[in-house]
User: Fold these one by one.
Assistant:
Number 1:
Amino acid sequence: MKKPDGKVVLLGDMNVGKTSLLHRYMERRFQDTVSTVGGAFYLKQWGPYNISIWDTAGREQFHGLGSMYCRGAAAVILTYDVNSLQSLVELEDRFLALTDSASADCIFAIVGNKVDLSDDCASPPDEHRPEKAAAGCSSKVRKQVRVEDAIALYKKILKYKMLDEKDVPAAEKMCFETSAKTGYKVDYLFETVFDMVVPIIVRQKAEGPPQTVDITDYKPAKRTKSGCCA
Amino acid sequence: MLMGDKNHINIECIECCGKNLYIGTNDCFIYHFMLDEKVSTSGKVTFAATKQLHKYLGFKKPVNELKAASALTRLLVLCDNTITLVNMMNLEPVPTGARIKGAVTFTLNENPVSGDPFCVEVCIISVKRRTIQMFMVFEDRVQIVKEVVTPEQPCAVAVDGYYLCLALTTQYIILNYNTGISQDLFPYCSEEKRPIVKRIGRQEFLLAGPGGLGMFATVDGISQRAPVHWSENVIGAALCFPYVVALDEEFITVHSMLDQQQKQTLPFKEGHILQDFEGKVIVATNKGVYILVPLPLEKQIQDLLASHRVEEALVLAKGARRNIPKEKFQVMYKRILQQAGFIQFAQLQFLEAKELFRSGQLDVRELISLYPFLLPTSSSFIRSHPPLHEYADLNQLTQGDQEKMIKCKRFLMSYLNEVRSTEVANGYKEDIDTALLKLYAEANHESLLDLLVSENFCLLTDSAAWLEKHKKYFALGLLYHYNGQDAAALQLWVQIVDGDIEDSTRSDLYEYVVDFLTFCSDRDLVWKYSEWVLQKNEEVGVQIFTKRPSEEQEKNINPDDIISCLNKYPKARIKYLEHLVLERKIEKEKYHTHLAALYLEAILQLKSGTTDNCVETVELLLKLRSLLQKSDLYRIHFILDKIRGTDLHMESAILYGKLEEHEKALHILVHELKDFGAAEEYCVWNSENRDLQYRRRLFHMLLSVYLRADTSDCALVMAAVDLLNNHAAEFDAALVLQLVPDSWSVQLLSPFLSGAVRQSIHTKRMTQVALGLAQAENLIYKYEKVKHKGTPILLSDKKVCQVCQNPFCEPAFVRYPNGGMVHTHCAASRHLNSSVTPHSSRSSSET
Ligand SMILES: Nc1nc2c(ncn2[C@@H]2O[C@H](COP(=O)(O)OP(=O)(O)OP(=O)(O)O)[C@@H](O)[C@H]2O)c(=O)[nH]1
Ligand SMILES: [Mg+2]
C-alpha cells in the first residue's frame, strides 16, 4: 500500500452528502449511497503526492471516531446541506471539536451541498421558513442556509482556533456551494483544497511527521520472535 | 477428546506453538496435544491431534490464559491471578517457582525492546487498580521492568515495542510506557461491549469499534486503513494476512484488509475463542477446537479470477507481495496479470486488457493463438500450461458474434502493431508480423502495404498462401520483393496489369512496375521486361533506362545495347538519346550525331506526312536547332548532307555557322529565309564568348550581304539601314563608311552616325582620363621612392627583431613602412601565417 503524503478529511452530519461528493469527484458519478459505516478512504494522486481522502460517517454512533480520523489532517472539509440549517449548526456544535487533532496548519473548507434542490433566488434575509418556499420557484425549495452564514461560521472557526484572518485563506475563498448530484463545483472544491494542501505536505515532509507521541528515544529492537518453534 | 462425557468441563483457553496445542480448561487442567498436518492429494489439509499429557494445576479455578515462549521452552499459565512458568514438554513448573502474581490478564510483546533472545516481555493488567506492569521473563526467573498507572481501569491490552494499546473503561488509548506519553484513540464503552485489542503488525492494532466496526490504528494514533464492518456482537478477531477473521455468535466472517470488503462468511455456532497462531487460525467452542486453513493465496486468486473478480484478485495479489519471496511473487503476479488481461479481453475491455498484457509481459503468441490460423504453421508456440484462460479460440469466445469478432481482430491489429517493435516481440517477430499481415490482408487494411515495404519478419510461405487466398496479389508481389524474389513479384504485377489476375490495389500499377524496374539492379530482369514495358507505352517505359540511378547505369547496362534494343521504339529511342546527350551530357560524337539525325529524320517524316502535326514539328525543330547550336560534337558534314535539299534553311545556316562558313550561313538567312531578325541573332550567338573584333566581323559580313545584292532590293537596303542604326556599337564606323553607297543621305544614317561619333569621342575622353590617372599614380610612386631613400636606417646588434625579439646577426633585414624591422625569415613566416600588418606586403623593402 502506498503511504499517503497528506490527509484530507470530510466531516459533517449524516445525509449531507459527503460520500456522494467524494464519489462524484473520484468516480465521476452520482448514485444512491448508503449511510456510511465507520469511514472509508480514497487515494488521490495529486502531482507527485498521494493524498488520502477520508469519508467519515456522520451518524452520531460513529462520532467518537472523528478525532482519530482527523489526526494530522492537512485539510478538513466541513460539509452541510444548504437546505438544512441544522446541519450547519451541527458543524459548530459537534464537528468542530473533532478537528483539534488535525495538523496545526490544517486548512478548513466549508461546503454547502445539494444546491440543486433549491432555487437560486436570493432569499430575504430573515426568511428561513420552508413552508413558504414553494411560492417562489416551481418545485424547488428555498435555500435555508446562505453563503454568508457559512462565512460567519468560518470566521468563528478562526476565532476558535485562535488564527488570524490575515494568516489563512479568505473566508470567501473557503466557503463553497456544491451539488454532488449535478457535479456543480465539485471538482473546483477538491482541486482548490488539494492545491492548498500541497504546501502543507511539503512543510510536513521538511519537518518530519508531526508527532503528538514522542518517539525520540524509541529504538525499534531487532525482531526476535518470542514464540518461535520450528 | 478431552473430557469425554463430563459435561461441566469446558475449554477455557488455547495456545498453539508449532505442532504443540495446549488447552486450558475450567477445571484447572492443561492438556498437551501434538498436531499432525496432512495434505491430501486434492490439496485439502487435515489435522490429526494426539494427546501427550495433561496436568492438573491444583486449584478450583479455571485456567485463564496460556502463552508459549518457545525460545525458553516455557509455557506461561495464568490461573488464579498468577502466571506460572511450566516446561512446555512435561508441563512441570520450573523448579525456582518463578511466577508473576496479581495478573488479571497478560500478553507477550511480539516486537520486544530488549533484544535478548532468551527473554520474553510480558505485559499484565494488574489486580491493582489502573495498573499495567511490564516484566522480563527468563527461563526460570522473572523481573519487573516498569509499572504504569493508567487514567482509567484497563480491560484489554496489546503491545508493540514500547507502545501499549489499551482498552480502558470508556476509550482506547495508545500509551508509550517508556515516555509515559499517551494518545487517545476513540471512545468505547468497555462495560457495554467487550473490547478487542489485537496487534496486527508492526505498530498497528485492530480494535473493536462502535457499531461493530473493526478499526485500525497505528501507534501514532491514526488510521491508515478504512474500518471493516463486523456484526455488533463480535467476540474475537484474528489475523490471517491479508484477512481479518472475526467471530460472533453465529458466524465466522472474513474481511480483506486490502479493500475492507467482506470476502467470506462461515456459519459457526457457540464459538467463544478465535485466535491466530503463526498463520493458523483456531476457533474453539466450549467443547471443540477447530483449525481454519486459508486456501493457498494462489488458489484464492485463481478463484477470484474464475469468477471474473479481476480487481479483487489483483488487489489480493499485490497485497501478498511482501509475504512471498520476490522471485516467486513476480512469476505469480505476472501470470495473474495475464489471466486478468484475458478476462478483460473476453469482455471486450480492450484498454484494460492491453494494460494488463503489457504489465504482465504476456507472450503475445498467447493472444494470437486465440485467433484461428493466425500463427504460422511453422510456429513452435504451445500455450502455457495451466492455461491462462478458458477459451479454445475466438469463435468460442465470441460465440460466433461477427461484430465482436471484428472488434477483437481490430484490437489485435492495433496491439500487434504497437508491440511489434518493442522488446516484447523479441524472439517471435516472425509470428507477430505474419499474424499482423494476415489480419491486415483479411480486413483489407491499408497498413498491409506499409508493413510489407518496411522492415518486417513475415514468413514467406505462410504469408504468400494467405495473400493469395485473399487475392492480395499486389501485396504478394511486395512480399516476394521483400524476400528477394523480384522475378516472382514482377511476374505477378505484369499479370495484374495485363488483366490476367485481378487486384485493384493500385490503379497506376504499370507506372509502379516501370518505377520498380528503373531501380531494379537485376539487369536480366530489366531486359526481360523492357519489351513489355515499352510495348505498353514507349515514352513512359523508356524511364526504366533514363531514370535509373546513375551509378547503376554506369556499371550495369551498356548504352549501345539499350539503343539497339530501342530501335523498334523511335520515340523511346529519341528520349533515351536525349537523356544521354542532354541530361548525362555524355560527350560522344556518335550519340550527338545520332540524336541529331533522329530529330532530322522525325522532322522530315512529319513534314512528308499529310496530317500536319504542327506542334510536334515545331517542338522537334526547336530541339534540333538547340542541339545543333549547343553541341560541338556531332558530325557536321554528315548532318549537312542529310539536310541539303530540304527546306530546313535555318538548320543549314546553323551548320554552316558551326563550320565557320558565316558568309554562306548569312546568305541563306538573308536570301533564302529572308529572316533578317534571325540573321542578326545569328551574329549575336555565333560571336558569343568571342572578342569584339569577331563580333564586328560578323556584323560587318551581314552588312555586306545586305549591300552586295545585285538587285537593289529595297527590303535589303532597309535591313542594312536598320542594322546600322540599331547596332551602331557592333560596327567599326570607318569600315562601314567605306561600304555604304554614296547615294545614302546623312539623314538616313543619322542615328548610326551620331552614335558612332559619340562613341568615338567617348573613347577619346576615356583614354585621356586613363592617361591622367596613370601619370598621377606614377608621381605618387616616385614620391614614395624618394622618401624611402631619404632616411638612412641603422642596424646594430642592439636592435632586436620585432617578431622574434632576437638581435640581428646578418646584414639582411626587412623593414616595414611603419618603421618596424624584422629578420627576413621572420617576415617570411609572418607572411605565411598571413597575420600581416596592414599594407606591409606591398611596400616592404629590403636593404
Ligand atoms: N439532490 C441531491 N441529493 C444529494 C446530493 N448529495 C447527496 N444527495 C443525497 O443525499 C443522501 C445522502 O447522501 P450521502 O452522500 O450518503 O450522505 P453522507 O453525508 O455521506 O451521509 P453519512 O454517510 O451518513 O454521513 C443520498 O440519498 C444522496 O443521494 C446532492 O448534491 N443533491
Ligand atoms: Mg457517507
Number 2:
Amino acid sequence: MKLAIDETRCKGCNLCTKVCPYKIFKEGKRPNRKGIVVPELDRPERCTNCRLRNLYGRQLCGVCQLTCPDQAIHWTEEEPYEPHKVAIEY
Amino acid sequence: MTRTEFWQGNTACAEGALAAGCNFFGGYPITPSTEVAEHMAAKLPKKGGVFIQMEDEIASMASIIGASWAGSRAMTATSGPGFSLMMENIGFAAMTETPCVVVNVQRGGPSTGQPTMSAQGDMMQVRFGSHGDYAIIALCPATVQEMFELTVKAFNLADKYRVPVFLMADETVGHMREKILVPDKVERVSRKPFVPGTPPFRTTDPDLVPGFPQFGTGQHVHVTGLTHDERGYPAATNPGLHMALVKRLVDKIENARYEMADYDIINPDAEQVFVAYGGPVRTVQQVLHDSPNNDIGFLRIRTVWPFPENALAEFRNARRFLIPEMNLGQIAREIERHVKVPVKSIPKLGGELHTPAELVAALEAKQ
Amino acid sequence: MSFDDWYRQDRLPHIYCAGCGNGTIINCTLAAIDQMGWKKEETVFVSGIGCSSRAPGYILTDSLHTTHGRALAFATGVKMANRDLHVVVFTGDGDLAAIGGNHFIHACRRNIDITVVCMNNQIYGMTGGQGSPTTPKGCLSSTTPYGCTETPFDLCELATAAGANYVARWTSYHVKELEKAVKVGLETPGFSFIEALVQCPTAFGRRNKFRQVADHVEYLKVHSLLRAKRDRMLEAGEHIPEDMFVVGELTRRNRPAMGVKP
Ligand SMILES: Cc1ncc(C[n+]2csc(CCOP(=O)(O)OP(=O)(O)O)c2C)c(N)n1
Ligand code: SF4
Ligand code: SF4
Ligand code: SF4
Ligand SMILES: [Mg+2]
C-alpha cells in the first residue's frame, strides 16, 4: 500500500506530524498553489499499514487518518512489483 | 355512515386527527388546549401511535418535525405562551417544507393573560410570527363539527403542500360541547412521492411542491434550515438562490389560495356585510337569524391564511364590511387592503364572545 | 468499507478551519458506525447549530440540521416515530449545555435510545469565540475578556446524574479510544453520551496561548486523567490538580430505556 496526502483537502495543520509513531510526516517547507504548506512524507514505506495491510486484510494503525481533520490521508494500492529489464548498452 | 356524538371541541379535534391517521403527538400541557393532548395520550398508544409529553413547546414543535421526516402524520396542540415558544421551529418547518399540524386554542394575551378565556389574538402571529418571509395555512373552526373536519383537512393540506398547517381555534370553540356527526371514514391525501435519484428540493411541477423523501428510504437527504440548493446543501450566501427558494416557499401557498379557499357566502347582494371566523361566527349567525329583513351579508371564512380575498369581491353591492374579532382588529386590517369601501372593525377583548346586541349596534351605527 | 465511505465526497473539503478538531471527531464517529455494520439508509444524523453541528451535512445518510440547541428534541421525534432508525446526534458545548440544556437533561432522563457526540471546544466557535457553559475559569473569550469567572459544567456528570445509560469522555488526541467509546455507545441501548474535548484554534486557541494547533492537542493529552488512575488517586487520598479532567468510560449501566428497536 502507498500512503498519500490529498493536496486538495489538506489544510496544513500538521497534526499528522504529531501523531505518527514513526514520524513519517514531516512539516513541509514550501506553500503549494493554494498557499498551504502540506507535510512531506519521510520514507512512508515504514508505515505499518503500508507494510502489513494486505497481509492482515484490514486497516492497521491508521491513527494519522483518524486524526486528520480534513480527511486528506489515504492509501492507494501499489502496482504489483515488476522486475525491470535492464538494457545494457555497450 | 356517520354516528352522532356530543363532544367538546378539543375532543373533536383529537378525534379528527386520529381519523386522519395522525400517529405522532408531541405536546406540552397548556390551558385551554390540554384536552387535545390528554385525548391523544389515551388513544394514540392503543392505535400503535406515539404520544410523548415533551419538556416544553420548543421541544414539542421540534419533535413533530422530526417525526414527520421519519414518516409520521404528526401534530401538537398549544395556546398563546406555548405558541410563542414554537415560533423558531415553525420557521424551520416552513423552510424545510415539513408537513405538520399545529393546533392553537387561543386564549387572552399578551403574556400569560387570560388562560381560561377566549381570544383570537394570534391571527397575525400565526402568519408572520417567525422571522423572515414565509407562508403557512391557517384554518379557523367555529363549531365542534368543524374542530373535527378542519383538523382532518389540516393534515391533508399539510401533506399536499408540505407546509405547517395551523388549526387556529379559540377557547370558546375548544371548550364548548355540541352535537357532532362523526363519519366512519375521512378523505386522506398523501404526500407527493419522491422520485429516487432526483435532487430532493427540486420541483418542476406547477404546484411548486417537491416530492417527499422520507427518512429511512435510502434517499440520503440533507435537511437544513439554512438556505439550501436543490440538493439540500447549504448555500447561504447566494442571493439569487435565496430569493428563488423563499419565493417558491411563499408562492406554493399563495398561488393555491383560491384552490384551498373555504368560506360560505350569505346574501351576496347585501350592502352591509359581516366577515367572521371562529367563535364570532356564532354571534353573527344569531344576528342574521334575528334580522327581520334577511338583508345582511355574511362571509364566513374557514381558511384565514392564505386569505381568500376573492370572496370579498362577491359582495358586489357592499357598502361596508363589519369585522367582529376577539382581538383589536387583526384580520380587519387584512380586509382593508382588499376592498375600497369602509371596513369597520368590531374588536372585543376580555374573553367573552360579542353579544348579538353589540353587533346590531355596530350595524346600526353610521360610522 | 471504511469511515471515508460515509462522507459526502462532493461536499469535501468541509468549512472547518485548519486544525479544527471537529473533523477528527467525525472520523472517529464514522469509524465506529462503520464497524457496527449499519446501513446508510437506516442511520440518521441530527444536529443543532454551531460549527460542530455542521457535521451531518458532510455525511451520506439522511440528516437533519435543525435549530440552535434543539437537536435532541428533533432526534426524539425521529427516533420515536421510527425505532428502526439509528439516530446519532452531533452537538457542541453551547448547543447542548446552554440553549439546549433542558433538552439534554430530559433526553438523559428519558434514556432514549440515541447516541450523542458532543464536540466540546469550550467556546462558541461559530459566532467567533464567546464564552460557553464549559469555558474553564480564567480562560479568555470575547465575552470574558478578563477571564471567565463562572464555574463550568461537567457535561459527563450532568448526563450521569440525569440518567444516561452510557457516558464517556475522550479528546481529539485519543482517536482510537474515542472510536471505541462511540462504538460502545452505539451498542448500548438507551441514551449514550460521548464528550470529545476538541481544539478550536480560531476562537479558543488564539486567545488562550495555543500558538500551534499541536500545542492545544498536547495540552488535552497531558491534562487527561485516566478514570482508573483518578479512582486510585481518590482512594489514596491524593490531590487531583484542578486543571486535569477525567477521560475514559464514566458510566455504563442498563436502566430501562425508551425507543429501543423492538
Ligand atoms: C436561537 C439562536 N441563538 C443564537 C444563535 C447564534 N449561534 C450560532 S452558533 C452559536 C454557538 C455555537 O456554539 P457551540 O454549540 O459550542 O458550537 P461550536 O461552533 O463551538 O462548535 C450561536 C450562539 C442561533 N443560531 N440561534
Ligand atoms: S493532518 Fe491532514 S490536514 Fe493536517 S497537515 Fe496532516 S494531512 Fe494535512
Ligand atoms: S498509519 Fe500509523 S504508522 Fe502509518 S503513517 Fe499513519 S500514523 Fe504512521
Ligand atoms: S471556529 Fe473553531 S470550531 Fe469553528 S471551524 Fe474554526 S476551529 Fe473549528
Ligand atoms: Mg463550542
Number 3:
Amino acid sequence: MIEARGLTRRYGNKVAVDDLSFSVRPGRVTGFLGPNGAGKSTTMRMILGLDRPTSGTVRVNGQAYHELDQPLRRIGALLDAKWVHPNRSARAHLRWLARTNRLPDRRVDEVLEAVGLAAVANRPAGGFSLGMSQRLGIATALLGDPEILMFDEPVNGLDPEGIRWIRGFMRDLAAQGRTVFVSSHLLSEMAQTAEDLVVIGRGKLISQCTTAEFIDNASESLVRVRTPQAEELRAALARADAEVRVEVETGALLVSGVTTQLVGEVAAAGGVVLHELAVERASLEQAFMRLTDDAVEYQTTALPAPELVTAGR
Amino acid sequence: MSAVNLISAESIKLFSTRSPWWCNLLAMVLPVGFATAAVLSWPTDVPISVTEVQMGYQFGMMLVLVMAALAVTTEYRFGTMRTTFQAVPGRSSALLAKTALVAGVAGLVGLVAALGSLGVASVLHPVSDLGLGTADELRAVLGVAPVFVFSAVIAVAVGLLVRQSAGALALLLVWPMLVEPLVSVIPTVGEHIQQWMPFVAADHFLRGERSMIADPVLSPAMALAYFAAVSVGLLAVALVVARRRDA
Ligand SMILES: Nc1ncnc2c1ncn2[C@@H]1O[C@H](COP(=O)(O)OP(=O)(O)OP(=O)(O)O)[C@@H](O)[C@H]1O
Ligand SMILES: [Mg+2]
C-alpha cells in the first residue's frame, strides 16, 4: 500500500509534482501514467525518500519511508538501471546491497537466477546490454523479497523480446499477490499490464481509476449492435437517451454514449435478439493524448504544412 | 541495522572495484620508495634521522585522500549513493560506516607505509640507529597511522560536500600542497595563522620541531587532537548536508 497525500515538489519555481494524492492498492498492478515530464520519476523518488517533498506526505504501508526498518524487505524499486558501478560485478553489486538489510548471500544467487543473469553474475555490470542492465535492476528490486515493487518505465528502450519478458515478469509478480506500481508514458503499454491507473499530467492528478474505466471514459466509445429487430431496439435505445446511428453497409446500429451493459439490458427488457454486441473505440493513444492534452509539458508547435505550389497550372 | 553489516557492505563496495586497490598499494609503496631514495642519497657515514626517513608520508597521504574521496564521489557519479540511501534511509549510519571503513583502511595503510619505510631504511643504512626509542621517533612512525585516518575522514567529508570527483580531488590536493604552505606569505599574521592549518598541524604532530612552524602554540599531541577535531567537525557538517539534500 502506497499513499500520497497532497504531495508537492518544487525545483526552484518549477512545480514538478503538484498537490498529488493517490493510493496504490495492495495485490494489484497499478500503472502510473503520464506524458514526459509529468513528474512520475520525481514522485517515485519521493516515495523512496530520495527527494524531499516541498509539502505533503507519502507513506508506504502506513509509514514514512525513513521509518521503515530494512526497507528493501518492504518495497523494492528499479528507478534507473544504470545506477550500478560499471566495474563492479553484478554479484558484488547485489552482495553489498543484501548486506545493508541483513539479507543472506543465498538470496543474491536466487534473484540472479530468477532474472536469468546467473551465467554473467561475475562480469562487470558496465558491459551489460540495456536488457541485461534492466534485469539486474529487477534483481535489485527483488532482493529483499518485498511485497511492494516499483518500476520506473521498465520497458523503455527494450527490444520486443525484452518487453515481453518484463511484462510477463510483472504479471507473475502480481499473481504472487504482490503490489506492483509501474510507470509509463504509453497507455497501450499500461492497458496490457495494469489493472488500476494513476494518471498525471504536469504534476497534477488527472484520474485514478481502473484501467477499464479509464479506457471507457477516455476513448469515445461506440457500441456496435447487430440485431434482426433493429427498429425495435432503436426505439428502445432512444427512450434510454442513447444516440443511435445505422451503419449503412451492414445495417448494424452504432450507439454512442452508452456501455455494452446498458445496450444488453435494454435489449433483454424489450425481448430483442442480439447477433453482435461489441465496443469500438478510438485508439488508446488518441484518447490518452486528448485527456492529457493541456497537461503535456513539452508541446511541439506543429510546423506549418508546406503550401502546395499551384502556380503555373 | 547493525554497524557490522553496514561496514561489511561498504567493504564489499570498496574492494570490488580496482581503483581503491591501486590507491592503497601506491599509498604504501610511494613512502617506502621515498625512504629508499632518501637513504641512498644520504652519506653512508652520517646517521639519518627517523623523521627524515618518514618525509615521504605526504605522498602516501595524497593517495589516501584520493582513495577516500573517490569512495564517495564515484557513488554519486554512478548513482549507487541513491541505492545506498534507499537501503539505509537514515543515511548517516551508512555514511558513518563508510567513513569508518575507509579511515580504518587508511590507518592500516599508514602503519604499513611507515614501518616499511623504517625497515627499508634500517637495512640500507646500518650506520643510523633507526628505531622507536624516543617519543619523537614513535610519533614520526606510528603517528602516520592516525594522520592517515583523519586525512581520510576529511576526504570523505569533502567528497560528500562536493559530490563530484574532479572538484573534490582538486580541492583535496591543492589545499594541503599549495594553499597551506603559502599561507605564511600573508604579511604579519601569515606565520601565526599557518599553524592552525589542519595539514600543517598534522605535519607538526609527526615532525615536531622539524616541521615548518617556527613558533608553535600547540604541542605535537595537541596538534593531532586539533587535526582530528577539524576532520570530525567537517564530517559532521557533511552528514547534516547529505541528510537534507536530495539524493
Ligand atoms: N532535480 C531536478 N531539478 C530541476 N528540475 C527537475 C528535477 N527533477 C525533475 N525536474 C523537473 O520536474 C519535471 C518532472 O520531471 P520527472 O522526471 O519527474 O518527469 P517524468 O514524468 O518522470 O518524465 P519522463 O517520462 O520524461 O521520465 C520536469 O519538468 C523536470 O524537468
Ligand atoms: Mg521519468
